[in-house]
Amino acid sequence: MTPVKVAQISCGADYSGIQWLLDDIANRLGIELVYPELELSQVAAACEELGFEAESPSLNMMIARAISLLRDTSIKGAILLTCFKCSEGTIVKDLVRRFLHERTNIPIIVYSNVEKPKEIELYSRLEALKTLITKKALLMREKQEGITVGIDSGSSTTKVVVMRENELVGKEWLPTTDSIGSATEALAKALQEAGIGQEAVDAIGVTGHGRDLLAEHFDAALNLEEVSVVSKGAALLSQRHKGDATVIDIGGMNNKLMLMRDGIVTGFNLGGICSGASGRFLEVASHRLDVDVSELGKLALQSKAKTQDRFELQSYCTVFGIQSLVVALASGVTREDAAAAACRSVTEQVYETMIQEMEVRPPVIFVGGVSLVEGVKREFEEMLGVEIIVPPYSQYAGAVGIATLVSGV
């Protein structure tokens, strides 16, 4: 199979020690990382075209390679990398991403080099990028057909849906313990709700952390990573198939930000480094506030504190953030204000780790288990200044997405 050409537009990948890992992952995925060709004499003109000249010659070379990419139609995607602590690199990376989004239709991912990069972070990004390139025709699908099952085996919960002719007729959501066991139980309950026997199912699709195990166990017809699947589910559930949109997905242990155009992801960013920006943090906060996590959002909405007087957690970390919450409660902060602070902490960390590296294109669609926490939705609306859409069955976006896509296989 011919490797997929992806442009690497970067600064610092060699001396940060990340290049060997990138090359290894790309080779395993069938991706050829290429460097758009250019002449040194073109650098100044490229900076002028972008409207920015960096102090660093390496960053200016990065700009020139981005301009050069426009002339190479064999390149089907791009990965933009700069060093984590380089503020000028962050500016260049964002300018280049916006420039390419305006002038191309190729999917683009961004990454900040860190001292000890995690293989799973790079692998998941490049895997999703390849899916967006190689399965674009499938991802353009706007409706489900026949009878299909979608299984999303997440880190915290397993979601299963049964769909028939573009209608969700059965669903189940269970804690993930044993991946196969949780999926099997959830599937049986979803089929029971739908009134359908498994023999009547045309195809099963799987996604999520446990998808490889489930693909073999259920003989799945389609096994896809979460970025392409969740975004498709969000578009279907919200009926936003045309134009621009932004999808925010916050689950039990990680989160994603996806920019979409006409139902297809054009760029994305992944979180997951810290559980403080996930549902897990809210579960711990709920336990300390003696309220079920499903009621935490309602409690947060009861907070009456004005902006200048509201309580703020002193750390985004789950451990130290909860410590801050405990101290605050002991000093007289109300449960309502503490719940609002917990919701705000999640949204602020999602913003700082993902959203600020990419623009938000309304409408904003919020999915994943945390989308059901009303306090988080409110905090996002105040932070971003736009209405947040939480579609029906938002926690099932991944399962709905894969159930729809597998109907086209």
Provide a short characterization of the protein structure.
The chain is 43% helix and 20% strand. It has 409 residues and is α/β, with parallel strands linked by helices.
What does this structure look like?
- Strand 8 (203-208), helix 8 (211-217) and strand 9 form a beta-alpha-beta unit.
- Strands 2-1-3-4-12-11-10-13-14 form a nine-stranded mixed β-sheet, with helices on both faces.
- It is of the alpha/beta class and 409 residues long.
- Helix 1 packs across helix 5, helix 3 (57-69) runs parallel beside helix 4 (87-103) and helix 11 (293-301) packs across helix 14.
- It has helices spanning 19-29, 43-50, 57-69, 87-103, 119-134, 136-139, 179-194, 211-217, 226-238, 279-288, 293-301, 318-330, 335-353, 374-384, 397-406, and strands at 4-10, 31-34, 77-83, 108-113, 147-153, 157-164, 167-175, 203-208, 222-223, 244-250, 255-261, 264-270, 364-367, 388-389.
- The model has no long low-confidence stretch (mean pLDDT 92).
- Among the domains are: 4-140, Rossmann fold, CATH 3.40.50.11900; 147-227 and 397-406, Nucleotidyltransferase, domain 5.
- The chain contains 15 helices and 14 strands.
Provide key terms for this protein:
alpha/beta; Rossmann fold; Nucleotidyltransferase, domain 5; 15 helices
Radius of gyration, whole Å: 22 Å
> What characteristic shape results from the CA principal axes?
globular
Helix content: 40-55%
Count of distinct strands:
14
